[in-house]
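Hi team,

As requested, here is the filled-out complex form for the phenylalanine run. I kept the field names the same as last time so the parser does not choke. Let me know if anything looks off before we queue the next batch.

— J.
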Amino acid sequence: MKQRATFNSKLGLVMAAVGSAVGLGNIWRFPCEAGEHGGGAFLIVYIFCVIILGFVVMLAEFFLGRASQSNTVGAFKVLAPNTMWKIIGYNGVLAAFLIFGFYSVVSGWTLEYIYQSAAGNLNANSIEEFVINFGSFQSDIFRPILWVLIFTLITHFVVLSGVKKGIERASKIMMPVLFVILIALCIRSLMLPNAIEGLKFFFNPDFSKITSTVVLSALGQAFFSLSVGMGCMITYASYFNKSINIPNTAVSVVTLDTLIAILAGVIIFPAVTSFGISPSQGPQLVFITLPNIFQQMPLGNLWSFIFFVLLAIAALTSIISLHEVVTAYLHEQYKMSRRKAATIVSASGFTLGIICSLSFGVLSRFKIFGSTIFDLLDFITANLMLPLGGMFICIFIGWFVDKQVLKAELTNNGTLKFKLFSVFVFLIKYVAPIIIALVCVNELGLF
Ligand code: PHE
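And here is what came back:
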């Protein structure tokens, strides 16, 4: 049998998983969700969801991937042959594809902002002007779609150049640079007048604001940001070699991902209160506040250029993982060449991207259940498919996988210590599935 590809080094592998987790979810989606759902109240619930649920599902996915050495659907076929469990895998592949569609649109926006900063055009006289400029770009037909196309092509070529050369190398260099820039931006944002109000909004929880919608959004955001619930980490873990310490890797990924989301909040919310805009702006939030911060900095266009390049790269390492989930599935389950599988994914993903992009312009009045296509895909994937996928992954591992097999894989056949193993089993068997089910049922009951 042909040997499967593996990641080269431990650092490269952690970085690839971090690269998948850290992306627009942290810097664009997190502040937008936190702003719409009460700031501090959202943050508290979010952190709870990350630690109790997200982390547990990530460990579970790492187990599934490395134990089966297979893609998202294949993992269930290997570990539970001839059963219905593979449906979890199909849910994951579909979710990856749908997320790809709207994610590529926002990734495209970052390219526009790179271009505008390079041209020195990212200036405006007032915050209203920034809002208008962004709105008119967003609702244009061709320009955003052109960027989606460019982004999809870049993704396509990285995925084709394979696991080691493409994914690992890109992640290893870019992630640390992004981190440094974020710290610099935090410092700048904290020096703005009125910054303290923003910090209060973000860190001071108003518990009366915690509703079932807030809890569901925080749960969805936690899964989205960690790239769990849909098999992305299953696919990546199938490239782990047998000496990797799975629990430690999961701790690193979860910690870095959460840290970066919080840094993004510390950058955005002080700026929001300082410029007097509403924190519940929605998807535009980051694209309006950040250019404003840059404009007030010396060499603003240069900073802006560097920042959006890094944001685009963070988006790239995430979208690659979405692409890889579907590509690995087609390549392995249908025995097609990697090139053919990747081409199918890129072409159909681009088509979906066009539709999502148009939903800000000509299709903005076309609504399903009261939402545009973009918002609907975002909601269905993050708030339903990922949490439910995560719940069934927990049930599968908690109730159907032999605990000896689970323990052997997570401790590398007993050579590592995993002191909290029984806590993990308790969480995955009872706590995680029950909480997720309650949150989803509660929210549906309110509809
Ligand atoms: N976690 C990525 C982000 O935060 C998005 C993503 C979701 C990637 C699901 C893969 C799978 O941007």
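Two things worth flagging: Residues 20-21, 23-26, 99, 224-225, 227, 230, 232, 318, 321-322 surround phenylalanine (CB under 6 Å). Residues 10-443 form a domain with the Amino acid/polyamine transporter I fold (CATH 1.20.1740).

Thanks,
J.
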